[in-house]
Every structure is written in structure tokens, then in C-alpha cells.
Amino acid sequence: MPAYALDKTSLTPLYQQLYQHLREDIESGILKVGARLPSRRRLANDLSVSPATVEAAITQLSVEGYVSPKPRSGYYVNAIETMPQTDSAKIAATGKRTIPANENRSFKKKPRFDLTSNDISNESFPFSQWTRTLRSVMAEEPEELIIGSGDPCGQPVLRNALADFLYDTRGMEVNPDCVVVASGSQVLYNLCVQLLGHQMTIAIEDPGYLRLHSIYRANGVETVPVPLGKNGLSRQGLEECGASLVHVMPSHQFPTGRVMPVNERYELLAWANEDDGRYILEDDYDSELRLQGRPVPTLKTIDALGRAIYTNTFTRSFAPGFRIAYMVLPEQLMNLYRRKLGFYSCTVSNMTQLALARFIESGKMTRHIAKVKTNSRKNRDTFIKVLRKSDLCNNIEFAGTDAGLHFMLHLDVELDESEIVARAEEAGIRIRPLRDYSMLASKNSGGDFERGIDHWFPISLSSLTETKAEEAAQALAHCLSMSGSFS
Amino acid sequence: MPAYALDKTSLTPLYQQLYQHLREDIESGILKVGARLPSRRRLANDLSVSPATVEAAITQLSVEGYVSPKPRSGYYVNAIETMPQTDSAKIAATGKRTIPANENRSFKKKPRFDLTSNDISNESFPFSQWTRTLRSVMAEEPEELIIGSGDPCGQPVLRNALADFLYDTRGMEVNPDCVVVASGSQVLYNLCVQLLGHQMTIAIEDPGYLRLHSIYRANGVETVPVPLGKNGLSRQGLEECGASLVHVMPSHQFPTGRVMPVNERYELLAWANEDDGRYILEDDYDSELRLQGRPVPTLKTIDALGRAIYTNTFTRSFAPGFRIAYMVLPEQLMNLYRRKLGFYSCTVSNMTQLALARFIESGKMTRHIAKVKTNSRKNRDTFIKVLRKSDLCNNIEFAGTDAGLHFMLHLDVELDESEIVARAEEAGIRIRPLRDYSMLASKNSGGDFERGIDHWFPISLSSLTETKAEEAAQALAHCLSMSGSFS
To answer: pTM for this structure?
Structure first.
């Protein structure tokens, strides 16, 4: 038995050091299979440690299967199917781990003006009110924060608040018992697939939010882009692709900004009603932020037969960093949800849920949204005014400026779209052409899109202050006004 | 044109009232398809409202597709495919929504002593320290809280903290770049299926955490219970079921409390190494809470070839209400994750992530866990002592009392398991027999389980204080000691 060098000044307990030595000797074969360990007393004497220390080390080895006791005889080394070890398998007994912390890895360089971002500017966020709400929850409902046995669909108090919120902002009458809360829209879409089953095809508007294809396909479901043309979603395309679910954004299509007229909504519901297994996922992601007039009534509101699954998120209207979204299921699907997926825990922390409920019920959310709208309106107006007064004034057109946090800008210049993007990038501006939001554009050159697809750019100013919006417009006009770029 | 009664004292804006009247008349056919709306000026005069009010109402109708403008002519009523309307489709112009808030629906009555719960007692949770941490995050990193463009796998600062935490509590050397944070273990398992593909079979220990079957099956994946016998997971069962993923809890199997010996760990790794597509999901859910000795080294630690996906959660060690779990992927799977699922946003709010990172790095988590262990040890010791001194003293046996927050109790009484559960329930105690955690038990009567399955009950005392643990033991002894129940 080698005399192990145990370090009594180390922070690592002696029993752990001894365990480590013995284990290494077993793994390296120094202590052979079947060999009997020295008695506890002898080890304690030899190493000048207490019998309790030896006991603890051997118990540990025994629990892990390195040694086994034989009654009234002692501990014997077991046969262990050994494996090549990585460095990381050799547990350092003390000190810091040897794999360094991840460096601040170089994410893509952040542009000065990101006109593709959903982030919101610090100015727009009600820090002090939100902090106060959190504090009140922590002070008044501490026990509620920690328990895990809440309703799998979300805290009842939040689901009530969301029903009230939908009534106030969208004129919707929804049953709080049909609301499901989750940590982001992506989680909701995952749940929808699990609810409706994996054997389906999902139709997605094109141009549209292409990430939806990634999300649904990651769930093992087929997706098909269906052209969004002058007359809305191609009814023929929808029929032909055999979809049983269509994911649409009727109130404010992303990225085109199109609002689905009411007759198309009824047509879509009629499509869903033709077959029992057909559903519509109504993605209402920023409808509260409509800048002019009342938000358009939802498909869900005119859905008499329970074919529309309504989803919404606080990513745009509150902040993306909070990860809160919700859906309202038709009653028969809600019953199915409870039966089929009721075992899932809600994915949003109790703290966030309870604070959000208070924030809504106290009217703070409504006031916050009004403020976001005011800021958005100012940003939009300033941005448009600057461009209209610039050298580009005869080469620009706007669309969808009323419907929410983004709108469309047409740049009638002689540059290729890629050159526009490159020049903008040099000027510190990130923009993406509408074409990038279409899977069909390359085939089709977007001919069917309402106003053509060429040289249209979705613009989001939500991450900017008004001053920044002004600067962005100036920078954009300047970089595109250089000689030779006008058509 | 009927003279609409507009209420100037109403909180509903006039334009909205007018919009509502016009829309109803269009939907009911009073305003016929193709009819021209009265001019804006005439409507304004007739109704004694401003032209701007009329303009706003008509714009709204136009946006929604009820009417269309013809240049220099006015607005005309469109053809609308009408649908039967539900009451909820008629948007009430004012007042509260008519569907009431959900009542405090009667969840299953909460027992006085829930010995099946994962909740933690208020005593165990460090409210003031956690609140202080949250406040410091809100005060010092407000901008970080709201942005949404963070790393999809979790904030780097948290992933570093988790790597440090795993080093300190588990002796693991992990690369922070291989850590993925999510809002609960269930979300992680969903992601694992999406990562490895839906065309697989997953083997699950039996007895085990049966909810795993529900989770994986909801993802469209097949699951097979594999018996956990005297010699661990049946190797034959594992081979025969054709699984490519096996979900195991080596450090502290739920609910049996079994610790997987090291030779079984190597055997399992050898199984995974036999085929490129095979992986082991190592569910290490409460290993930090091992009550005696150092936690057992993980499979991941001895996994040289990258077959082990390590998962852990703060549900047990912190509190279930926070929804934070994480996994450590082998490097090749991490690369695949970034390529295949890198589009997902992290499902935990920035606030929780940043606060948790601080809580870990400041050493508060380690101290908290030490306290939870002390409490658990006290609860366990008191519970066992009371039962050993009770009339039941000759009819009880304990197993797995060192490994974490639950242990096993054998009740050698003449009552059926269902009678034991019923008597306990009457006495305010919720317990469940081990049999309830097995899909194979009915066929097999659990004969292969290490000590048999009959009359074993997993016991969790985490939701109790020491006094309650004492009372629970007394109540259990009393209700089972009534005449005729001894064997």
C-alpha cells in the first residue's frame, strides 16, 4: 500500500483526497481486482488520519461500485470495465476548473442602427414600474413564488388578467380557462404540434416569418410556403399543399405589414370548416401596437366553430427579454390539451407570471403600450419626414405604416438589393430586403406579391430613440444618394 | 341611412361607435353589397360629429375589408362571405367581458402532509438573499433585462456560472460553450428529441419517472420501459427494445433511490459506444443534495467518446417555481445543436438568468444547498426515529436514505397498498406506492426490482418542516397501527 500524501492544509477534505488516491489506484490497476483493501484501522494509522476519514472514503468507493464489502472481512476491489479517460474525467482535487470561461465571443458586430431588430429601446421600457411590481410580488406573495404545483396552463390570476387584457385591447371575449401561458411563442408552436399531432403539414405565408419553417420542421412536421399575393394567401396553394394547419398573421403580416381583409378571414375560416382536422393558427404578435385606429378584430372573434388558435406575445409590446407568450384555444382543443398535455409544467416562472398579472390589472400595461405607440409614431414620422426631404424623396414609397412596429420601404434606386444592404452596412445601418423573408422569391421573383417584391425593405425602428431614427434616415439617404444610385 | 344613436358621454370613442353601427348594418345586410356609403360630410352632418370621426370609422371599415374606396366617388360595401356568429363575435362596445374570471377551481384538496411533493418548505428558501440578488440585477443591468438578442443557449455569464457550479458540486470539468439553459427539464427533453430526431426509441428505467413516457410520446417518439432489477437496468431489455437513447438517473434513481455502481456506468457507456447513433441522457436531478458523502461522479465525467448528455435542474435544489434547468452536450452534439436548433431563443427570462448567475458566483447557492441538506437530514432523521420508536418499529425498513431528497420506506403490514394509501389519506398524508411508478409492475409484480416492489413507498419530505416531518411520522404510525394491520 503506497503511503498517500494527504494535504491537511488543503481545502479539499482529507476523506476526499484519500478517496481520490484509492480510486486512481483501482482504475490504474495498482490495486488489483479482487484485492482486499487494508483495514480501516491500518489505513488510519498509516496515514495519520481519523478512522472516520477512512470510513468516509471507503463508503464513497463502495457506493460508486469500486469496492464491495464482505461481512467480517473488509472491502475488496471490484472488476471495472475500464474506458479510455479524457482529461476532464480526471477530477482535479482542488483549484479552479481547467476549461476556461467562455470569452465574450464575438457576436456579429452590432450596427449603429439595426432596422431589423425587435429589441426595444431602453427609453420605452417602464423599468421603475416593473421593478416596483416585482417587489410587491416578492413582498406580498413570497410563498407563491417557489411552489411548483401550479396550474400547468399558467397561474389563474394571470390567465384572468390576459382575458381582461384581450377584452380591453382587442375586444375579444375569451374564457380564461382556455388560455395557455408559455415562455415564448416558439414554445407555444411546439405545444401546438404536440397537441394536433406530428402527422400534419403546416402552411406558412410567403413572404413571411421564415423561422416558422425551422421551428415546425424541428418538430418533425412538414411545412409549405404558400404565396401571399394581391388577393391574400393563395387559396389554391393552400388547398394543393394538403395542409391541415395554416399559420397566419391577419392583423399585421410580417414582414409585409398587410392587414387581412374581412372577406379573406371568412374564406380562411370556411377552408378550416371544410374538414374536421383543419385549424388556423392566428399569430397576433403586435396587434396592440397598431398605430392608427382600433386594432382589427381577430379571426378568433369571428370563429364560430372553434377552428382558430389565437396566439400573442409580449415580445413586441413589453420586451423580448421576458419570454412570455400565450394562446387561446377553442374549447374542444382546450379539453384535448388538458387530457394530452396537462402533465407539462408551465414554462414561465411564477414570479414573472404574478408580476405580469399585477402589471396588467393595475392598468400599467395599457399605459405602457400607449407610450410605446407614441414613441413608435414619432420614430416613424421622423424617419419618413427625413427621407421625404432628402435627395431620395422621389425614389421612395412606404407601405403598411399604420399597422404596428414595422413598415415597408421601397427604394427605387439603381443599385442591386445586395448593394443597398452593403452600402447601408457601411453606414452603420442593418436592413434586409423583403426577398430574404421569402422561400418562393427566387423561383418566382415575388411577382405575385401585392406590390412586387423587388427593392422593398421591412423597417423596424423599435430599438431606436427618435433622435436615432432621425440619424438613421439621414445616414440611409446619404449612403444611397451617392452618384449613380438613382434610377 | 338610419340615424345612429351615438353616445357622446360613453367612454367608447365616437368613431368606434359609428364603426360598430356601420359594420353591423353591413353584416346584417341592411347596407347591401355594392351600396355606396353616404359621403363623409353628410354622415358628419346627420350624426352631428366631426368629419374626422367619420373618417376614422370608415378607414377602419376599409382596412378590415368591409368597404372599398373608389377614386373620387366614395366608399362601397364589399361582398362578405358571412358566417354564423357566436355571441362573443359581437364585440361589446363598453363594459366588462361577459365570460367570468375562472373561479378558484377546486384543485385536488391539499393534504396536510404531502410525502409525494417536490415543493420545498418556505423555511428552506432564501427569500431575502434572492430578493437582494434580483434587486442588484435590476439596478445594475437594466438594459440586459429587456433585450432579446442574447445567446440562444443562455446568457454566457450564467453558462460560466453553471460550469463553475458543476465543478464545485460535482467535480465536473465542462465547457461553458456546451451548456444549454432552458425553462425546465421538460423543455430540455423536448429539445433533445428535436436534436436527435424523431425516429428513435427511448428506453426508460422502470420503476421510474413515468411522466418521461408522456413527455417523449407527446413528441411523437416511442418509449419503452426497461426493468431496473437487482443488477441495474436490464442489459437484455435495453438491447431488445432497439432504443438509441436511454434516459437514466445514475446518481439517485427516482423513485427507488438506487445509485448506479461504476461498473454499470461503464457498461452503459459501452452500450452507447457500440453504435454511432446511441446516446445516454444522464438525469442528475438532485445529486447536489446527496446527504452523506460526496456526490457520485457522473457518467458524463467518465464518458470519453461523447455519448452522455448531462441534464440537471434547480427544481429540487432551489425551488420548482423558477423553471430553470440546463444540459451539457458532448461537443459534436453541441455543434449539431447550434446548426439545427440555434434559431431558438432561450426560454428563461434574462432576469432569472442574470440573477441565478450572481447567486451562484457569490457562493449563495452553495450555502443554500448546504442548508437544504441540513434540513433534509433533520427531516429524515426525525421521521425515521419517530417510526422506529412507534408501534410499527418491527414492520418497517428504509432504503436509499443517503442519496437525496427522497428515500424508500417499506411497510410490512397486512393491509393492501391501496388500503395503506387510503388510511394515510384519511390521516392527512399523501403517499404513493412504488408500484405506481412502474409500467411493468402489473405484468411482473416487480419481481425483478432489487428488493421486490410490494409495500415499498417513496417518501419525500422536502415540503415539510422538521416539526411537520415529526407529525407526519406520528400520524402515519398511528393510522397504520390500528388493530389488524400488522403482519
So the answer is: 0.82
For CATH 3.90.1150.10, list the domain ranges present in chain B: 101-122+367-480
Chain A partners within 8 Å of B59 (Cβ): 292-293
Residue of B nearest to A108 (CA): B149
Of A471, A480, A474, give the one whose Cα is nearest residue A419: A480
Q: Contact, A427 vs A471, CB < 8 A?
A: no
A303 contacts in B (CB within 8 Å)?
86, 89
Contacts of B71 (CB under 8 A, 6+ apart): none
Closest residue of A to B137, CA-based?
Answer: A131
Q: How far is A62 from chain B (nearest CA, A)?
A: 8
Closest CA to A188 of A332, A313, A315: A313
> Is the CATH number of domain B101-122+367-480 3.50.30.10?
no
Contacts of B105 (CB under 8 A, 6+ apart): A156, A177
B88 with A63: Cβ contact below 8 A: no
Residue of B nearest to A182 (CA): B347
Distances (CA, A) of B146 to A115, A181, B255, B274: 17, 19, 40, 46
pLDDT tens, residue by residue, A194-229: 999 999 999 999 999 999 999 999 999 999 999 998
Beta bridge partners of residue A328, listed in sequence order: A179, A310
- Report ipTM (2 d.p.): 0.81
Domain with CATH 3.40.640.10 in chain B: 126-362
Residue of A nearest to B294 (CA): A60
Do the beta carbons of residue B317 and residue B288 sit within 8 Å?
Answer: yes
Number of CB pairs, chain A paired with chain B, less than 8 A apart: 331
- The packing angle between helices B127-140 and B364-389, to 10°, is 160
Residues A259, B64: C-beta atoms closer than 8 Å: yes
Closest CA to A101 of B357, B364, B403: B357
Architecture of the domain spanning A126-362? 3-Layer(aba) Sandwich (3.40)
Count CA atoms closer than 13 A to A181's CA, side-chain side: 32
| Class of domain A14-77 as given by CATH | mainly alpha
Taking the C-alpha atoms of residue B54 and residue B246, their distance in angstroms, rounded to an integer, is 66
C-beta of residue B63 within 8 angstroms of C-beta of residue B57: no
Residue A70: exposure state from Cβ atoms within 10 A (0-12, 13-18, ≥19): exposed
- The beta-carbon neighbor of A194 closest among B135, B218, B263 is B218
Residues in chain B: 487
- Alpha helices, H only, A257-416: 262-273, 331-341, 350-361, 364-389
Chain A nearest C-alpha distance from B76 (Å): 14
Q: What is the pLDDT of residues B190-248, one digit of tens each?
A: 999 999 999 999 999 999 999 999 999 999 999 999 999 888 999 999 999 999 999 99
Task: Report which of B304, B332, B370, B145 is spatially closest to residue A89, judged by C-alpha positions.
Answer: B304
Minimum mean pLDDT range among A80-89, A98-107, A112-121, B315-324: A80-89
From the list B65, B117, B194, the residue facing A219 with the nearest CB is: B194
